[in-house]
Fold Hydrolase, NUDIX family.
Amino acid sequence: MYFKEKADIFGGVTVSSTDLQPSQKEKDMFREIMSKSLDHWRSRKVKGVWVKVNIADSDIIPVLVENGFEFHHTQPNYLMMTKWLPDTPSTLPRYAHTMIGVGGLVIDEEGRVLLMRERRGYYLGWKFPGGASDPGESIFDTAAREVLEETGVRAVGKALLCLRQINVSQYENVGDLFFVCLMDVINPEIKPCPRETAACRWFTREELENLPEEEFHEFHREIMRRYDTWKKSGRRGCHMASCHFTSRKCQMYYID
């Protein structure tokens, strides 16, 4: 008896705990079938074995560890574990190791800049509204959502102004990419989120320049300098266009 599996195009197999019979999830039975399955996979020259453990089946995790499986990634309702079978370095891909954040540089027709203060966090000075991208969002989608959630202002993405990369963020082995998105205002009315936003307002450029450094970080000042350079250049900038050469949702960003 072997575990039910699904083969992949890279010479590996995936086993899902939700496909197992209740008796197969009992530790002793699971241990016995896993031993036979590993021998079977080795005889077939299978390379990587993936086991998706539903949270309800977490009792089998110690048995997988006994058999040399390692943690690969986790989601709220499952843990993925892997084992590389050949006597060669593993070529199994790592899980996603970069977080994506987006800040919205929102400037109205009068040239005023939208800034907000967070209620909690590492930096409590004035900043551009923004936050982490949700699964399935484009960069412009994230910018529009975060600006609306934190300030109540409706705006749409116009161009990517710059990108900041941090190789190690607050999580181990996870980097951070932060995109700054220039945005057009649709509705300038401010309705700050009481849970996230301590203060929010429009600033003139003169008011920004007069803010002390602890109130407006050098990172944000550099973004404003980059904005001024971009505006003087007359270039369109890095803009987004949907593409149709893949079955998956995809956006391309072009620099003009």
Observations:
- The longest helix spans residues 27-43.
- The chain has a mean pLDDT of 91.
- The first strand starts at residue 6 and ends at 7.
- The chain has two domains: 5-84, 98-255.
